[in-house]
Design goal:
The protein has 349 residues and is of the alpha/beta class. It has three domains: 2-139, Rossmann fold; 147-207, Helicase, Ruva Protein, domain 3 (Orthogonal Bundle); 214-346, Zinc Finger, Delta Prime, domain 3 (Up-down Bundle). It has helices at 6-14, 28-44, 62-69, 90-102, 119-122, 125-131, 147-157, 164-174, 178-191, 199-207, 214-223, 226-238, 243-265, 270-276, 284-293, 296-313, 321-333, 340-346; strands at 2-4, 20-25, 49-55, 78-84, 108-114, 135-139, 161-162, 196-197. The strands form two sheets. The chain has a six-stranded parallel β-sheet with strand order 1-6-2-5-4-3, with helices on both faces. It has a two-stranded parallel ribbon with strand order 7-8. α3 runs parallel beside α4 and α11 packs parallel to α13.
C-alpha cells in the first residue's frame, strides 16, 4: 500500500483511483479534507453512488460484502465508506476485509476512515491484504513548530500573504486548533482588499473575531463556564453553524481529558500526559480545571454521550442534534440535564 501524506494525496488521485483508501489520523480537519478529496476524485470518474457504514458494537460485517457484490439500480460505480472509530475491525471485520480485498470489484472504491493506527494494527492480516492494492493516507497532528509553515501554506492557498509577525499572532490565537485557523483565514479573505496581511491587520481581525466561535466554546466548557458556554452554543446555532464541527471540537476535548485521566491513573504526571494528548501550554490550566471537575467515570459517560450526538447528527438516532449538543455542553461543564440512569437510557435509544 502506498503510504501518502495528506499533501501528496491530490497528485496521487490525478494519476488514477486505487480500489481502496485508508484515511487514518486524529486531526478531524485534515481527515475530513482528505476524505473529501477522495470523494471528489471518485465522482469525477462517475462513482456516483455512495453507501456509508459506521462500524460500532453489533455491526454486521456481511453488509460490506453484500454491498460490494450488489448491482446498483441507479449507478454503475459506487463509493463504499467504512467509518471505524476505534480502528479495530475485530475478528469478523478482519475476515470481511480480507475477503473484500481478495475479490475487489473495480466498480467500487472502498474508503475507510479510522483514527491513528499503531504498528500492531498495521501488522494485522486485514491491513496487509489491503496493503497490496490500496493507498494509506497517514495523518499526523500539526506540531507547534510546524504550525507557522502550515498557516503560511493555507494563506497562500487562499491568495493571501502575511508577514512572520502576523503569522505568529494567528498561531498564538488558535493554539493548534486547525479548524479555528481555517475560519480566521476565510475571514481574512473577505476583509482583505489587496491580499496582504500585516501584523496590524491580523491583530485587528483576530481581535474582532465572530461573536460566537467554536474554539471559544471549547474553552468555556473546559473552564466550566456553563452560562457563557450555553450562550455561545445557542449563538452558533443561530448563525447557522453546522453541528458537525462543533461536535468535533467538543468530542476532541473529551477524548483528550479521558486520555490524560487514564494516564494519570497509571502514574504519569499531568505535564507529560498533557503533552502526549497534544495539549498546548496555555490550555493546561483549563484542562486541569476540567479534570478536577470530571472524574474518570463521568468522562467515560461523556465519550458515550458524544457518540450518541454523532448518531443524532447523522440521523441514526431519533433525537434533536442541537438538544443533544446542549446536553453534552452541560455535561462537560459538570452539570446534567438528566438523572444519570436516564442519561444511559437515552444513549441506547
Amino acid at each position: 500500500m502506498a503510504k501518502l501524506r495528506p499533501e501528496q494525496l491530490s497528485a496521487s488521485l490525478k494519476k488514477g483511483m486505487a480500489p481502496i483508501y485508508i484515511i487514518s489520523g486524529d486531526e478531524p480537519l485534515l481527515v475530513q479534507e482528505s476524505v473529501d478529496q477522495v470523494r471528489q476524485a471518485a465522482r469525477k470518474l462517475e462513482f456516483n453512488e455512495r453507501e456509508v457504514y459506521h462500524v460500532e458494537a453489533g455491526f454486521e460485517w456481511g453488509q460490506l460484502i453484500a454491498s460490494a457484490n450488489s448491482l446498483s439500480l441507479f449507478a454503475d460505480k459506487k463509493i463504499i465508506e467504512l467509518h471505524i472509530k476505534n480502528g479495530k475491525p475485530g475478528t469478523e471485520g478482519s475476515k470481511a476485509l480480507v475477503e473484500y480485498a481478495s475479490n475487489a470489484n473495480p466498480d467500487n472504491v472502498l474508503l475507510m476512515v479510522m483514527p491513528k493506527l499503531d504498528g500492531a494494527q498495521q501488522r494485522g492480516k486485514w491491513f496487509k491484504c489491503l496493503d497490496k492494492i490500496g493507498q494509506y493516507v497517514q495523518i499526523w497532528p500539526i506540531k507547534a513548530t510546524q504550525l507557522p509553515s502550515w498557516i503560511n501554506q493555507r494563506l497562500r492557498q487562499a491568495g493571501l500573504q502575511a508577514d512572520s509577525q502576523a503569522v505568529d499572532i494567528l498561531c498564538s490565537r488558535i493554539e493548534g486548533n486547525l479548524l479555528a485557523a481555517v475560519q480566521e483565514i476565510e475571514k481574512l479573505k473577505l476583509l482583505s482588499d489587496d491580499g496582504l496581511i500585516s501584523a496590524e491587520v491580523m491583530a485587528n481581525v483576530v481581535a474582532d473575531s465572530a461573536r460566537y466561535d467554536i474554539f471559544d466554546l471549547a474553552d468555556k466548557v473546559l473552564l466550566g463556564q456553563t452560562e457563557a458556554a450555553v450562550k455561545t452554543l445557542q449563538g452558533l446555532q443561530g448563525e447557522g453553524t453546522d453541528a458537525i464541527p462543533i461536535l468535533w471540537a467538543l468530542a476532541r476535548e473529551v477524548r483528550s481529558l479521558n486520555q490524560i485521566a487514564h494516564a494519570q491513573m497509571q502514574g504519569q504526571n499531568f505535564d507529560w500526559a498533557a503533552k502526549q494528548a497534544g495539549v498546548w501550554e496555555k490550555r493546561k490550566p483549563m484542562v486541569q480545571a476540567a479534570l478536577r471537575r470530571l472524574p474518570p467515570p463521568q468522562l467515560e459517560l461523556l465519550l458515550r454521550k458524544a457518540n450518541g450526538v454523532d448518531k443524532a447528527v447523522k440521523g441514526m438516532r431519533n433525537a434533536d442534534a442541537w438538544s443533544e449538543l446542549l446536553d453534552l455542553v452541560l455535561g462537560i461543564c459538570g452539570l446534567s440535564s438528566l438523572h444519570p440512569s436516564l442519561q444511559r437510557l437515552s444513549l441506547t435509544l
